[in-house]
Amino acid sequence: SQQGEEDPQALSIQEGENATMNCSYKTSINNLQWYRQNSGRGLVHLILIRSNEREKHSGRLRVTLDTSKKSSSLLITASRAADTASYFCATDAATQGGSEKLVFGKGMKLTVNP
Amino acid sequence: DGGITQSPKYLFRKEGQNVTLSCEQNLNHDAMYWYRQDPGQGLRLIYYSQIVNDFQKGDIAEGYSVSREKKESFPLTVTSAQKNPTAFYLCASSFRGGYNEQFFGPGTRLTVL
Fold this sequence. Notes:
- The complex is a heterodimer of chains A (114) and B (113).
- Chain A contains no helices and eleven strands.
- With 114 residues, chain A is mostly beta strands.
- Chain B has 113 residues and is mostly beta strands.
- Chain B has strands at residues 4-7, 10-13, 19-25, 31-38, 42-51, 54-57, 64-66, 76-78, 87-94, 103-104, 108-112.
């Protein structure tokens, strides 16, 4: 079952520009995570935001969470060619007894042109 | 070095054969996961295990089997019953609970000839 949906599905920008990716989900969550995947590699965790948080920063990354709209955004500032990758949001469903697994979106491909 | 490893990196299988993909972690994580990734499909959960000797089916378990005899190891067998096994397989581990970040291995690309 696909919980998160990233938007846009693909984004191409110039080096130095900011990149914004959005994620929408359907059910209540405990947390939302963003991951990055370089082509042909495993995923790497970027940032986790809990349901009671609204904004979080990590280096050039800024994540926001709006639980009323069931959406999150990931902003990468001053992008670099090395940021070229696919980005996934993942959510854990807030179920009785606690959550045991993440559900990943289909991903969004970011291309940063030098 | 602490981490999670998968082997082999590339695997070729003839139709009708079972194959086993290896996943090992030395991060002392209780939970381990297997995902399948197809182009444009994102990650789909095959099986997961929260503790040794216990595992649960994910969204697409049919045609797959797993075992969890050791905390460090969570091998995945792709059986001949899996109709379309060609895909990229990713293993991950985490501390127990879906609210923790997952650490991923480098993946195994399986091709059925």
